[in-house]
Structure formats: structure tokens, C-alpha cells
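A common beginner's mistake is to predict each chain separately and then try to dock the pieces by hand. The better habit, illustrated here, is to supply every component at once so that their relative placement is modeled jointly.
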Amino acid sequence: MSHNTFGHLFRVTTWGESHGPALGCVVDGCPPGIRFKLAEIQAELDRRRPGTSRFVTQRREPDEVKILSGVLPEGEDGTLVTTGTPISMLIDNVDQRSKDYGEIARQYRPGHADFAYDRKYGIRDHRGGGRSSARETAARVAAGALARKVVPGLVVRGALVAMGTMEIDRDAWDWDFVDDAQNPFFTPDRQSVARFATYLDGIRKAGSSVGAVIEIVAEGVPVGLGAPIYAKLDQDIAGNLMSINAVKGVEIGEGFNAARLTGEQNADEMRMGNDGKPIFLSNHAGGILGGISTGQPVVARFAVKPTSSILTPRQSIDRDGRNVDVMTKGRHDPCVGIRAVPIGEAMVACAIADHFLRDRGQTGGR
Amino acid sequence: MSHNTFGHLFRVTTWGESHGPALGCVVDGCPPGIRFKLAEIQAELDRRRPGTSRFVTQRREPDEVKILSGVLPEGEDGTLVTTGTPISMLIDNVDQRSKDYGEIARQYRPGHADFAYDRKYGIRDHRGGGRSSARETAARVAAGALARKVVPGLVVRGALVAMGTMEIDRDAWDWDFVDDAQNPFFTPDRQSVARFATYLDGIRKAGSSVGAVIEIVAEGVPVGLGAPIYAKLDQDIAGNLMSINAVKGVEIGEGFNAARLTGEQNADEMRMGNDGKPIFLSNHAGGILGGISTGQPVVARFAVKPTSSILTPRQSIDRDGRNVDVMTKGRHDPCVGIRAVPIGEAMVACAIADHFLRDRGQTGGR
Amino acid sequence: MSHNTFGHLFRVTTWGESHGPALGCVVDGCPPGIRFKLAEIQAELDRRRPGTSRFVTQRREPDEVKILSGVLPEGEDGTLVTTGTPISMLIDNVDQRSKDYGEIARQYRPGHADFAYDRKYGIRDHRGGGRSSARETAARVAAGALARKVVPGLVVRGALVAMGTMEIDRDAWDWDFVDDAQNPFFTPDRQSVARFATYLDGIRKAGSSVGAVIEIVAEGVPVGLGAPIYAKLDQDIAGNLMSINAVKGVEIGEGFNAARLTGEQNADEMRMGNDGKPIFLSNHAGGILGGISTGQPVVARFAVKPTSSILTPRQSIDRDGRNVDVMTKGRHDPCVGIRAVPIGEAMVACAIADHFLRDRGQTGGR
Amino acid sequence: MSHNTFGHLFRVTTWGESHGPALGCVVDGCPPGIRFKLAEIQAELDRRRPGTSRFVTQRREPDEVKILSGVLPEGEDGTLVTTGTPISMLIDNVDQRSKDYGEIARQYRPGHADFAYDRKYGIRDHRGGGRSSARETAARVAAGALARKVVPGLVVRGALVAMGTMEIDRDAWDWDFVDDAQNPFFTPDRQSVARFATYLDGIRKAGSSVGAVIEIVAEGVPVGLGAPIYAKLDQDIAGNLMSINAVKGVEIGEGFNAARLTGEQNADEMRMGNDGKPIFLSNHAGGILGGISTGQPVVARFAVKPTSSILTPRQSIDRDGRNVDVMTKGRHDPCVGIRAVPIGEAMVACAIADHFLRDRGQTGGR
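With all components supplied together, the output reads:
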């Protein structure tokens, strides 16, 4: 019910504004006895961190995470173990150049929530988007780093598969390259880096921006997570992904392409394997059938719209009902979809962790 | 949290299996004092009802809805008024030909939840899909018919915009034609009927099936519904739509196409109208920015996969781990996407009604 | 969030008014594979049923429960097995003498919700109390009968321990006598029957009513249910019991008497038993410490106020703002506390079942 | 569902352990536009603060609250205004003498959650009770200070009405005295201070402890908050109060005494006042009838057990299954009931604020 919480048994509440002193989250319901190191959480945050290349916002935020509760140290190597109590994580805001935003404090930026937000709440922290800022997603990434630990054997990875009108070559997919230091785009296709760089430099220099499509693949998802009706695993993944800033579409497996297939084409046939275990001969379903995980990799994609903050002037109005031309200076990502990769992974990981606990609750996790 | 409930303040719990004695729902949180007639609920159910043309399942279900609680009669014309207490609605299952399903009781039908379901619960009512049957959606449509009444001025309409590889001509869009008696497809394009009929007859006669894309448009949505983070209106619409059987993708506004646009193209510019009210010059956003409704029409699309129950044999396994070839007889829709139109409308209406009450709770509905 | 639902993983939604066609509940989240017979549910309802003695309301309701979903028959002996899908139960209202209530349709009966209810909802089904009627508790008892099956080894029993100014002799406690056919009061003290009968006959003939105190004891509660803060087992038991009509107080273990004890007196000391298992030497805590079950019997008590519907006239006002004298005819329990015994058991059983599943979700049920 | 959250629309999530770096809460759902000063929050915390007299724990904690999100400054006088986004509040732990607890790290203290907690989670921060520590209640008090602002005209006050075997003289009730600097007990009876002081000094010097009864009175509660079934206002107040550490019983209005009354005695009669408004002639109901507020003051009482940490040795066992004698040194309140007064106020205020928003959501707050 809450407006700033997601999940049910693995439950994440986030708080914080772009230009407040800090932001953070409380992860409630994390099972006790899970071991991890702070560096593992930090590593995920570093993947989302701004300022790492010319293709993302130049805001300089170390995004250093502190854990304030819910864990105990174990041994001397920095291992932390969860106690089953709520885990509070905090990230200080460091580089808040509020002056950048003074000019548009009363203007409604096209593509942003400004107008609707003002009408709803009657008050708005305009600095950096306030609560609507993508900075909030740092808290999600921290929570997702924990979620990954909840389900034994779970591996959640993501990649950018399209930027604007350009797509990757799926035959060149290389997971190892996604987090390569030479890869500012989280693309799994090594050859695409040069193409994307040229394309995005053009976009950036034109004071424009562009959208992207991200694909998340979760391997090691146990069979049986989800439910046939309103706790479908795909439903919660879709809701989680759609809650990320600027996302306008979500797909599972074949997604919209499934509408174009026949029943024979779309059926994932099965055979018993030599090891006596069932084998799926394809994965059009994206690992979820009837709302329940099949044991195959869970595949989700989401579309990120182009950054709304652009240098090109756009017509709009201001809070006083005057026509204005809005040009958003400040520091912005020319393609917010890039940094959405670790965020999407985190949201999928959280959905899976939540359903893992829910399944264990209802069925005992058979 | 519950596995069979959706919504928070306008809260719908459904129950029932395809071949049990009945199915139904409890709508909790409906405001008191809302007036309607039973015939209005029934009319929505009739739109979803099977057996209305050769293009949908031939199961004969009157889908007659009874209201067991939560309303009082007012006057002599059949008007009912809600009392604010839970509204229990019940629909008897009449035409349950269980014998049709005997053959595949132990087989896992490709594309269905059978395998994952069995692994999760260890027990399964295989008849007609049991709880996974699309018959459950009758309860959603009944709830949605109430939801439409909760928000003054709200109009939620839907249409089929693509079937398999064929699309409508959007320039020929005519809302009035969607519910025309000569229109078995909920298409808004009069010319498309003959094309779709020929196409789907071919599919049907081949023992095959095909997917579809549905578009839902909600007009009269007040500005300010939703929230910037985890109660985004688009997030809950996406979750609601993804919870419909066979849905594999959801879009808001430009959806996946937004990824291909630049910031200038995607910006919905604004101007003050002559009446002193703000005007949007386009609606790429689909009526939702930053998770909050803008007052423009809310536009959502969803992709329905092809019916998994087909006459063409597919390879699979059975409960005992044997390889089998599955051919699903029985009565099935060659394109389940058709009847998904009123279901999609219902789910969007429920999401909007819920957010209308939630907004009134937090902000007083300014 | 919902106004007619309780529980989180074992989740009960009830619906229905006193004088509508039926009432019922949906139990969502019940694990699959639980076996029971309809007669077991019915037996619990029969304990709560009106009309069984001169000491309870003379309304004649068979309270026959039907199960509409969520179970499959197993074998030939009437055994039902839960499937993990929502279990819908329905009880028809049979004996609705609406004419009894015509006189007070517009009057606000002292001690009843009438005034506050009207101010809140603006519309009210006055017949038999409408939604506020204790008839709704039949649905709780049905749900509780299922809840008892969820936790292996759980036994939940209740007894009336005080009626008005009279108390039982706790030294004469005999659980076997509570459901004895010669015991119209659910008292565990055989000698108290004659005393209570004489006392309550006097109350009844005087057109008056009287309150009662009920004690519920749950044995077989596993150690470790609950949580240290806002999912305390005692918190949820207290909320569940306080939600029963006419309840004004709830205690766990020593309850209010604990305030009068010293730390030494109240401490439940422990020793290792000869079998190597921990033994508590007393149970002042009522089986719950710091919100978590200790493995000892869980002991809760609740106070039921005297029936507000009495024949003795009381001053009040009506809906039109006129002073009136209210005298409630109709059929009423002179001591509603009596029939509260099976209701209290049901509510405690539901709380324990819910926490059993929640604990299994978070900790794996170590 | 969450284990560390309470409330639905006014939703409080707390986190933190007794001996961690900090504790805090996130208040989600607070309406926008509420004005307050940090000093008002701090003032409530100061009332709960340890170390203020010899009758409470000598732990020295400034309990200085910081607000990290959800507010904007307004003007120059320190006024803060809520923005409708989550309000994160943080209180540093300063005086953590962990060495005090070393001795009983592996012992199960009678009356504490230690044994049950260990069995549930398998890991426990024993220092100061960890998550089970009453320090967590500082976060509740901070949240409650905000809750008081949500409902216009709401005044929530509390008082200690009994300590061990001693009671106040209710005829001497003086609200103004409760927060008097000369009153270390929150008693409303000036004469009781000397009696309580002598009594508690004796208890303290004997290494013992004693319980207490607290009464909370909420004035200015609008008529119509709550609901007839599972969102009863008294139900949520009872749950909220029972969630406070060491509480073993909760009453509304007459409470357990209602069981001893007749229907005539317990009826709150009504008359139309000279101003045309309804008047209740008594308040046995404690301001709540049928789960809904009547507009009269809401009156709740709760019983606090004696502090379990006492110097007198008690028999117990340790984590290794050995019999031990436990004597709890460290710094403890001889009567934890005293500091429970502001906590009880906070929990009642939170329940009322939540129901205020819920009522506004469902009914529009007629």
C-alpha cells in the first residue's frame, strides 16, 4: 500500500531526494544468516554511479553506502551476516549543485513529472528532480545487491541491447564483456561500442538525448516461484521494472513479438533429458508460464525513453500559467538507459528474492 | 501480499476454478453511495462471454452475475447503491465438460503452467486449467465494471490493434465500431473485420492459434493520480495487465518505440489554452509522467501470446516423466487476445479507481 | 490495507450482511495438500450457531457451509484436499425476519455502531446490524477451522471464565466439559453451569444483558513464531481478538495482573529437562516473550461487553436529530460472550497459522 | 506484511539495534503541506529519553533526531513543511556500553525474548537486547510526533495510572501536572508522586522491578474513523499498543470492567444538545462503537509488565543447554512503564492518523 515500498516478504522501502543530505533504503524481511561483504554492495553501486564516462551525467557522487543496522560482523575479513532484522542503508549526497536548477524552479519541463507532481502535492523539491530523481535508484541497487544473496545459485545479469535506432548483434553476445572497463554502455556486443560511441557523441553534442532497451536475464531461478493469478512472477517483475524512472514498456520472453507468432511457433516443447530431468527445447516464455517460473532463465526487457532534460528548447508553461521555452542545463545523461542496466538487474533480483520467500511461506518451498 | 488480491484501497480478491461450481470476487473498499444497475455489470460480462462467435471458445456459459452483499436497492428501477461494505459477486459455472480434459490430466501442455504449477503445488485441478483458466477473468470484468463508477467522468475503452502479423489501420479508428454487433474482434477499424476473419479462419482450421495486441485508452483520468516511486500509476497498470493470462508485454504511451526517439521528439510540449487551462500538444507519454497522471488520456497496450491449447501435436512430458505428444482438444479460442479487450479495460479501470482513492487518502484529492 | 481482510500469508477476507442472501469468506494463501472434511468445518460452525439454548439468540440459522473453490475431493470418504488456490466458503442466510427491525431503522441504538456508522458511510443496512452484525463471525469460524489444520499439532481451545460479576473456579477446569451437551456456556467448570444459568435467566427476564470474559489456550505452537517488533505474535492475536464484535479488552498471559507483579514474580524461570530439552517453570508470559512464541501454551483472554440490544429503554437520538427512547426487541443473546468462545478460538488459530507461514517464509522455519 | 512496519496510509518503518551506530524510521504516506518544527519532534523524544531521573535507566542518550528527507524549510523560523515524500528520521546511538552485557551474551534472561529469538533466527545481537531493545521506541515517538500533526485538532495525551500495586486517585487527575518538571512518573495525580517515589525506591534498591498501567486519551478524533470489521479503530489501537515492548494487556473504554456490567449500565445514552449537535451522556465505550470513532475522546489503557532485567538472580539456561543463574546488571529502568507513556501516545496517534487518511480515501472524509 505504501507509496515508497516494494516487495512483500523481501520488502524494500526507499527514501531521499536528489539534493537532500542523503538517500537510502530499509530492507525488511531479509532472512537471517546471509553472509556478504560491504564491498559487494559497493561494487553494484559503482556500476550505477554517475560520472564514470562522458556518456553519463558528470555529477560526481562517490555513492558510498553505509549499513546502519541488521548485520553483525563475522570473523576478521569483513564478512557481515544478516540477523533477520531490518537492514538500513544510507548513501550521502555529496555533489549537490543546487544553483544549476534555479532557473527552472517554476518551469514545467516537458517529459518530466513537474506539472503532474505540482498538481498532486502542491509542493515540490525542484532541485534535481527531488524525489523523482534517478538518484533514488542508488537505493534500489543497494537492496538488489542483498536480494541476489537470498536465493542460492541465483545470477542476475543485464545488458543494453538497443540505443535509439541502433541495435546490438545478438550473435555477438558476450556476458563477460558487459562489465569490461572498455565498455561504457553495458553492451554485450564488443563491436557495438564504437558504433554506440559515435552515435551518442552526436546526440550529446546536438543537445539531444536518446532512449534504450535493456535486457535482464536471471539464471538459477528455482522452478515454482510465482502464482497463477495476482502474484505472477512476471507481473511483479513488470511492475518492478516499470517503476524505474523513464521506463515505458516491459516484456517477458518473446514479449510483443509473441503476438505475431502462432501457437506452434511459441510453444516451448519439452523432453526428458538423459539425466532424468525435464528439458525445455526453447524459451519463448522467458522462463515463466502461467505466472510461475519454469526453471529456465527468466528473460525480461524494458524500454527507457530518451532523457527529458535536453539543451534543445521546448515549449512549456510555468507554475504561474505563463508560456515559456524550457532548456534544461545542468548535468544529464544523454541516454539514461545506460545506467538503467544495474537498476534493472536489482529490480529483477528483488522480485525473485521476494517470490522465493513467498513460495517458501505458502508451500514450504517444495 | 495475498496471492489472489490486487489493489490497495479499491481491492479485488477473486476465487474459483474453471470446473468448480462457481467463481467470483469480493470487491473491498468501494466507496459508499455509488449507484449502478446489475445490468451494467452484466453488460460488461457479456462482452467477455465465450460462445458469441466462431472465433472464440464454444463453451456455453451465460456468465450471469449475482451480487450477494454490499449493496442496497434504491427505488423501483433496479438501481443499487453501494454501502461501503465488501461486494461479493458470484458467477456459476454451467457448462463444465470435464470429460474433454481426461486425456491430458497427466500431461504437461507446452505453453501452459502445468509443469511449473505441479512442481510448485504438488496438486493441480487440471480440468480446464483449474485456477489458471481464463475463466477467472470473468471476476475481474465484474470488478472492473464497478471500478468504472468510482471515478466521476472516467471512460475506459479498449480495442484490438493487431492480430498475429496483421495490424489495423489507425487512421480508420472508430470507437463506436468496437462494440458493433458485426464486429467479432473488438477492432476499431471497420475494414479490418473481413481481413481478420479470413486470417483467423485459416488459423483455426489449421488447428493453430495466434496472438494479438490490445490497446486501452482511459479518458477522464484526473491529474495527480499515482506517485513518483513505487506507486506509479503506470507501474500498477503494467502489473495489472501483466497479470492477465497469456500477456507477455505491456507498454505505456510510445512504449518500446520511445527507445528509438530523441528527447525532442518524445517531449510532450505544453501551452496555456485560451480557456486558461494547460494544453499538451502531444501525448507520447500516454498520460503518465514520472508515475503521475497528467490529465491526458492514459494509453496502455499489451501483447497476448497465441493460445497454447492447439490441435497441432507438440512434444512434451507427462507427470510420470515420460515423453509424450500433446494435442489439446476441447474448446479453445483461436486467438485469446480477442476476449482480452474487456479484461484489459477492467484491469486498467481497477488500477485507476484504486489510485483515485489512494490519492484522496494521502493528499485529500486536491 | 483492506477493510475486510485479516492475516498476511494466511489471509481471510469476509463479506456479507446480517439480512442479505448469504455471507462468506475467501481464505487465500492456505498451503496446498492439507486434508480435512467438510464436517470438520461444519462442526465448528455448529458450536457458534444461534438457537441452541435459551441463553442465546433464537434466530434459527442452520449455518450450513458450502465450499466453492480451492479443494479437490480425495478418495470416497469425503476427504477434501486443499490445492493452494483461494478457498471460497459460503453460508446462506435463512431466517431473516426483517420486520423485527422496522421500528428502529432510523434510531441510533446506544452501544451500537449506528450513529458513528451513519456519519461515516451516509448509508446503512440497519437490518440486524447489517455488516456490523455478529453473524459475520460465522465466516471467521469457518476460516479458523481451516487455520487449525495449517500448523501440525496445533490445538486451540477456549472457555468462558467469567460472566458478569460471576467467575468460574479455575481449580475445577475441565477441558472435556467445555463442549459437553449439558454445558450451554462453554464453561470449563462443571459446577458453574447451574450458577450461570440462574444468573443469566435473571438477566434475560429483566430485559437486560451482561458481559463475559473468554480465555483461549493454544497448545502445540512451535517456538519462534512472531517477530520482535511489528509482527509480534501477541500483537496480531490482540488485534484479531479486538476485531470481534463487542470486545473491549485483550490480555496475554498475566495480562493486566502483570502490572501488579515484581520482576521476580513475573519471571518464567527455565531449567534443562531430563530429556535435554528446555523447560519453563511457569507461564506468566502466556507463551510469548518479546513478541515470539516460546513453545509454551499461548494464553489469551478477552472481555466482551454486555449485549447492547436490550429490552430496557435507553435514551438516544434518531437520524433526524430527534430525542427518542430506544428499546431493542428482536432476538438477541443476553450474553454475547458465550458464543464468542468459538470465535475467539478461530481468531487465535488464524493468527498462529499466519505466523507459521510467515516464519517459514523468512527463516525457512528452522 | 512487513515485520518492521505498521500502518497502511500513514506508514511507519523502523530500523536499528540498541548498540548499532544509529536507529531510525521512515514515515511514508504523510500528507504534503504539514508544517512543524524539528523542536516539536525533539520535545517528544525528550519526554521518552533515558537518564532524566533516578527512576529510569541511567544510559545517557541525547536522542537527537535528524530529518534526512521529505521536508523543505519554509521561512526563517525553522518551520519545515512536508512534501508528501517519505520522511527519514535518524537518531544516533551514543552511549553504548557493550561491555556491560558481555557476561550474559550466551544466557537466556527470563522474561526476555532471548530464548525464543535465538530459536527463531539462529543469530542474535545480545547487546542491550539488540532489535528487541526498547530503544527502538524512540523511532516510534518521532513518528508519532508527526502523526499528531496529520489530524487537525487532534490532542493525544497519556498518563501513568497505576504502578505495581499502587494506583492514582482519579479524582485528582490534572493533565497539566503530567509533564511537570517535578513529576518523574507521568502521573496525573500530584499527590501520588511521593507515594510512587518511595515505593519505587524500595523496588529499585531491592534489585527488583515493577509493572504499570498507562492510560491514553485522544481528543479531537473525528467521528467516523475505523470500520465495522477488520479495520476497527480499536483493533488497530490494540495492535499498536500491544506491539510496545513489555505490554501484556490492552483495554478500550471500560475494558475488562465492561464484562462485569449490564447492558443498561454500559449503554452510552445520547441526547440532542442545545446547539443541535448530538451529545453522549457517558463514555463507557471509550470513544469507539462497532470499530468506528464516535467523536468522543478515545480512551485506551495498557498494562506493562515489570522490567525483566533485574539484579535478583533467576534460574535459566544458556545457549549451550546448561543451567545457569541469571542476574542482569547493566542500566535498567526499575519500572519500564514510566517511559511507556509517550510511546503509548505515539502509537495511538499513529493509529488515528492512519485511519484519518484511510477514511478520507474510502469515503472522501464526509
